[in-house]
Amino acid sequence: GSVENGSFTWSSPSNIALVKYWGKKENQIPENPSISFTLNDCKTTTKLSFSKKESKANFSFEVFLDEEKKDDFKPKIETFFKRIEAYLPFLKQYHFKIETSNTFPHSSGIASSASGMSALALCLMSVEKELVESVSDKLFIQKASFLARLGSGSACRSLEGDLVVWGKHDAIDGSSDLFGVKYPFEVHENFKNYQDTILLVDKGEKQVSSTVGHNLMHGHPFAQERFKQANKNLTDIISILKSGDLDRFIALVESEALTLHAMMMTSMPYFILMKPNTLEIINKIWAFRHNTGSKICFTLDAGANVHVLYPEIESEQVLEFIKSELVVYCQKGHYISDRIGFGAKLL
Ligand code: PMV
């Protein structure tokens, strides 16, 4: 390319899976399709500055988190650059400065890989667009999602909203193992502005990285049944999202969360990523639902934190319940109130 230097800034959100991705093949190809809500407030903002350099022998970049130099992030980004080099030929022609910040506290136990990798992938696509003649909007997002997937699988579901599917599924035309696509079907208004309050139960380092976790699905005794179940759950969620049947939604989403953890508990080696307070919260949620008829439910990612999902009309009563009964189980009483969002933005 002939551009000497410049910069782009993107903000990109986190996402929470309803049908979980757990298990992958070579090149970050998922073993089963997944679907997620895009979040609104939990996001990463990344500014990528680039300037032409002389030598094209190596990647050259520096990383800053909240204005602080972060050399410990470099290996992850180096790996990412190696994986995407074939698709972005300009990578070795520029020096990059990556300045990033998250709206949620670092080491809150909220994975920043989905928002972080998608924000970086989008910045890199903006550079590509500057160098290449024409990139349509559709191709831009598709390739950015493709690149984000190579950074962190679930990151490919963070670029758009409000529901994104990743992984080939028979019932969803255009779905692909290579990138996320916007959920193409009708969604009942019960799910409009759905709320997700994230209870920060444990902010410690993860006991098991998601890379190790995915790999433990190779040779896992229940792997094939699990992949079948995820496919079926994706089929089922299409009619649930259309009809607005919140009871079926709750059953599917909670079962997915517990199955994800069951896979970890039954791998070799095995892990328990829930904490006692995770279970306290789940039991309180079940009791509250039983006693009040609320449509509150929970989901989990690969950690101890609990995502509390509920319809917008219940916001007041559910937040009251969270404050009076669940916050005691959160580390330092910390929680984040989020909701469904609509994807990344160029700033
Ligand atoms: O994107 P990864 O490789 O960190 O995997 C994340 C997988 C889960 O968050 C546990 C589930 C999902 O689909 O997001």
From TrEMBL:
Sequence ranges assigned to domain Diphosphomevalonate decarboxylase-like N-terminal in this UniProt record: 13-171
Domain Mvd1 C-terminal per the UniProt entry, residue ranges: 198-326
SUPFAM superfamilies, per database record: GHMP Kinase, C-terminal domain, Ribosomal protein S5 domain 2-like
InterPro entries on file: GHMP_kinase_C_sf, Mev_decarb, MVD-like_N, Mvd1_C, Ribosomal_Su5_D2-typ_SF, Ribsml_uS5_D2-typ_fold_subgr
Keyword Lyase included in the entry's annotation: yes
Keywords on record: ATP-binding, Lipid biosynthesis, Lipid metabolism, Lyase, Nucleotide-binding
The protein's name: Diphosphomevalonate decarboxylase
Organism annotation: Thalassobellus suaedae
